[in-house]
Every structure is written in C-alpha cells, then in structure tokens.
Amino acid sequence: MTSKQSKHQAATGSQPKDGIRKPARLTILAIIYALCIAAAIAFHAQEGVQQLMEDPARICIWSLCFLLCLIYHKKRSSYRVAAEHTVLPPLTVILLVTGYFPDVAMFLIIVTIITSIITARSLKIGILRAGTTLAPIPLIKILFANTSHVLSIIISQNSVNAAINPYQFQHWLLPLLIMTVAVPIIRLICDIVTFFFVQIPIRKAMREYSLSHILAMALADLMAIVWIPEILEFANIGSDTATVLSVFMLALIAYSLLLMTVDTMSRLTRSRSALKCIANVSDALPLPNQVPEETVVRRINRGLTRMRCFISNANNLDKRGYSYRYSAPISTGSRQYYLAMERSIWNRPFMSTDETILLTCGEVLTESLRVNKEVTLLRTESETDTLTGALTYRAFIGHLKSLQTENVHNLVAVVYFGVEHLRTVNEHYGRKIGNAVLRSVGMRLSQLLPGNATLSRVNGAEFAMIVTDVTSTSDVEELATRMRNLAVMPVYTEEGEVSVDVSSSISFSNATDGFSVLLADASAHIYESESSNLPVVDGMTSTLDVLETCVKDMTAFRKVAPELDIVDICMNGSELGASIFHERLEQLTHEQPQLRFGLQLGSHAIHVVHDEVDDEVAALAALPNVELGLTNAGTTYSEVAAFAHLPLDFARFDKTVVRDFRTPRAKQIMQRTLEISRDNDAFHVVFDGVESLDQVEFIRSIGGTLAEGTLLSNAMSANEFLMRLETMGTSLPEAAPRQAE
Questions:
Q1: Residues 6+ apart with CB under 8 A from 690
Q2: How many CB atoms lie within 10 A of CB 659?
Q3: Which of 52, 202, 412, 565 is the most buried (most CB within 10 A)?
Q4: Average pLDDT score over residue span 144-149
Q5: How far apart, in whole angstroms, are the C-alpha atoms of residue 536 and residue 68?
Q6: Which spans in 430-560 are helix H?
Q7: What's this model's pTM, rounded to 2 decimal places?
Q8: pLDDT tens digits along 257-306
C-alpha cells in the first residue's frame, strides 16, 4: 500500500495527501483520542447496558439506524486526517429532544467509531475522525438542556404555524443557530490541533478546505432540524417520545440518503468533466510541434468549471487563498514545467478525478514531446550527410523550393564547391583517405558559414551553400573566395599530406526568373556529376533512405520477434560506387551486429558492377553480415556472368519462373541452380512468388528450403506488420526446421 501511494504521489507531482511526516506523533495523538472516547463510553456505560438488558431488540434497531445515518461521510479537505461532515449533529439533537440520549449514547459512540474506521480504512485515522466527530456533543448537550419543554411546545398544533414566540426562539431556534456555527468551528479546531501535532503546515492545510462546502453542509443540517416541527405536524403523532424518535430516525435516514445521492451525483459530474477534458485533449492529437502545452491547457479549461489549469515553472505555488495540484514534471530538454490546477478556498475541493486529469494529460503531453523530438531527430538525421555533417541533396532541393514558396522576391545565392580529382585520390590512397579529404573540406567550409546560409553535400565530391537575404553580390563572391582558399589547404592524413583542389561557382536568383535559374543550375550540376562517372547522390540518397527505414523498422520488429534479422535491399547499381553508401553500410554492420544485410542485384546492377565498380562490390561483400544476391534469377541476361565473377551468397528466382514450375524448362533451371547451391554451402537459393500449396510441395520435392510469397499473407507496411504482431502476441513461434514455408 505504501509503495503504491508513493508512486501515485510522485506521478501527480503533489505532496502526500495527509502531509504526515511523523507517523509516531500520529499514533500518540490517536491513542489520546482513543482514551477520551473510551472515557465517554465508560461514562454512559451504565445507562446503555441497562437499556440493552431491558429492550435489546429496540437498541439493536436504533444502532442499525445510527449506522445507516452515519455511514455517509463527506470530506472537506484533501488531507486524510481531516474531519468529515456527518449527520451526527442533527442525530444528537433528535436524541436530546426526545430524551433518549443517555440511554443510547454508548451505542452512538461505538457506531461512530465503527463507521469512521470503515470509511478511513485505517485504525489510527478512524480514531482521529471519530474523536473529531464526537467533539461537538458536549456543546450540543449544553445548548439543548431544556429540550423536554421545547418538545411540548413545537409539536403543539397552535404553535407550529404561529409566529415565533420568545421561548421557542430562545430554547430552540437560537441553540440551532449556535450549533450550526459552532460545530464546523469545533471540527476545524480539532483539525488544526491534529495538523499541528503531526507537523502538517497549518496554512497550507487550511487551503485544502472549501468554505462553500462547509457552509452548505452546516445549512443542510440546520434545515434538517428546523423542519422537524413540520414533520411532526404532518405525521400528527402527538408527543409520545418513542413515536417521535421513530419519525425523526426515518427522516434522518432519508436526509442521509439525500446527501449521499447529492454527493454521488456531484462525483459523477466531476468524473464526466474529467473525461471531457481528456477527450478534448485526445481530439487535439497530434499536438502541434510548437508550444503543445498551450493546446493541452486550453482543452482542459474547456472541460472544467470553477477551476483553472495553467502552465507553472514550479510546483510550490503559494498564492494566498488558493490551493494547487500539479502533474509530473514535463521536460523539453532546456526547460522543465508542470501542468497545474488552481482553486480558491470558496470553491469545491479537489478530487481524485482532478489528479487523473493532470496525470493523464501530463503523460499525453510528455509522450507528444518525445515523439516530436524523435521525429525532428530522425528528420535531421535523414537530411544530414553522415560523412561530412552537411545537409543532403534532398534537403538542399527542399530548402530551395521552400524559399521559392515563402518569398519570391528574396535574393538568394547558391555557391558550389567541387573537390577536384577525388576519384584519383581514392584510387591512389584508398577510399579511407578520400573520405578524410571530403570530411576536412566540409569542416573547413562550415567554419566560415554565416548565419543566413546552409551547406549541403549535393553529390559525391561537390558541396552547395545557400545564402539567403543577399544584400550585395560582391559580399557573396568575397565569402566564396575566402571559403575556397581555406578549403584548398593541404589535408594531413595517416598517409601523409594530401593536396586538395576545390573549384567554385555562384548562381543568383533574379527578379525575372526567380528561383528557376537556381533549380536549373542544381540540375545541371547533378547532370555533370553523372557524365563524369561520379555517383549520383539523389539515387544513392534514396537507397540510403530505404536502408535507414529498413533498419529502423527491423529494430521495432525485433522487439516482438527477435528471430527477424535479415534486411534485403534491391540495388540499382548507381549507388555501388558511392563512398557514402559504403561508409554507411560499414557503420551499420558495427552498430547493428545482430542484423544481416542482403544486397540484391538485378540485371542493370550486374552490368554496372561488371563494367565499373567490381572492386567496390568485392569490398562490400567482405563486410561482416553483408551478403550479395542475384534477384530475378532465371530472367536476367547476364546472370551466368554474375555467377562467374561475383561473390554471390544467394539467388532469388523470379516470380514468373516459380509460377511456371510445371514447365519442364523452368523445373530444370531451378533444379540445376539447387545443385550448384549444394556444392557450395555458402550459397542459397530463394524461391520468390510462392502463392499456392502446390508450389510449396514442388519446392520441397526438389530440395528447396527457402521461399517467399503471399501464401500466408499479402505484403504489408511496417506499421501494419507491427500491429499484426502485437495482436498475435509478444513473440513469434520458434523457427521450424528449414523447409519451404
């Protein structure tokens, strides 16, 4: 119980509800209350035992009625040691008026203790509440000492509707008014004593009370007793005390049930408001990236009445006459704040539903901030070149287009810096040194980058700088010269000093053509890189994007299916000679050693590999957990040559070949390929396009073990796959022996 309570208090960001830091002091105070109550029981024990012996049935019935009346409790404070409203004041007055108080006082005290302990679910707190509840009884006995004379007057038919006479006012209405004021004050004094004794901050504790609620309960008790004469007149029962007591008890039970109903309806209304607040916040999802907390606060206030939700930088507000509740701390990295609720002491008290609002909406806001942060980080990573730290070509084009949309009159310049003879450096020193040269050039260009400019790597050996709000073309030309002079300084590597040659060119937007000239120049630069056999970054970037997405999705898949470990990428050939692709793939093999990467080569990729980058592909195949494969086997014109000179690890039969498995020629091709795989244990054959059980039986009959297709399910997106896994369970079944599936 203690651990759950502490966890809840930490989640809501509030102090403990009872504020108790000294449990030993609380125990001592409970013992003092228990002794006082025991003395009161002993004082009335003789009359109580005598009445029980004379008429046990009536005493049991009355005790049961007391229990029904007192079972209703209404908290006036969030502190669990505080007093609660009960129907004890009108009950005591009724017993005094009818003259039965000495006879049943012992049973009344016992029932009060029982109900207090039941509602508190703690012996110590129950004793404290029972003592606070019984404390006003001595004052009530003094106020209604002459009630026997009042009884004969108030039930007289002549005096019920008559004007208030002095005797009735002095001995009936005036004591009632005094009791109405005195009882709440006595209970508050008892609370203050309790708070002081257990070292609860008195000032803070007083703010947890609702003065409007205290006054409403006091007036309800007053009206319940004032209407007693009207009840007696309506019942026309005379002045028999036993009958009068019975009518009073029935009326008091009805009064208790009415209060309980009002309280239940109030709680349901509060719960409805809480659900409305949470629904309003849910309707606003996804929250905006900018100041999402303002949206949450606005939606909460739309569902609340007589309370205010706002953002607070601290959880210890101390505004006079107000009480507060806080959510768990919400952190944005640079700032920490809280969702806070505020109410005045005249307003309704806080309830658990209010804390539920803060807890739930605070978690929604925290999760939204986390998602926005991850999305921003992923977007930044996807738009950042991993080798040089500059932006990618896609980000470069997107920035240009956004500038064109935002302000067509904005004078923009694009400066291109090309690293000359980079291929020669790679061939002479190796790709590692070539990467060091590119990285050094990118860092040097970034050193002089002004605040109104961005730097992108637009292809393997070329950078582009976008400068916005250009005021002078000569300033841009001077900046480009200084950046180029810094970039051409020799680079010192482990192989010694490497000279660097960097060329530059500048394009400006103009009022006539706007940004079209800049976009045209960007396309021209990319075309030049293609014609000079430099890797095209746009297509390569697409492959990298696919690779990053696959790794991200596979990481998520493995949380529910750790058996998954293969990432297959179809290559178009142009990225095979790109150093950035080699670098990223090598980096992933170290970052994700549990994954295997399959590079599938089609006819075009095989042609590129054979004519241009066969050495680079061999280096790729040498990476750990990287496998090369032939896709669309059975249809590509150069697959025989690929088998001859490429270090292939697998071949994937084309769907059309598998679909025509009954054709003798297709069957012969597949059988011979399987024979090759049996001679080389490192080479595997995959049958793609499996759609029927007949195909599965055929593959098994010729010794095939690996199959893909839509036999069990159609292709699905990553999100759909994760959803399917979650609905199926937390893990996949253990893998069966390698057979076609």
A1: 658, 696, 699, 707, 708, 709, 710, 711, 740
A2: 17
A3: 412
A4: 68
A5: 85
A6: 431-447, 473-487, 516-531, 537-560
A7: 0.54
A8: 998 898 889 888 888 888 988 898 888 888 888 888 899 999 999 888 88
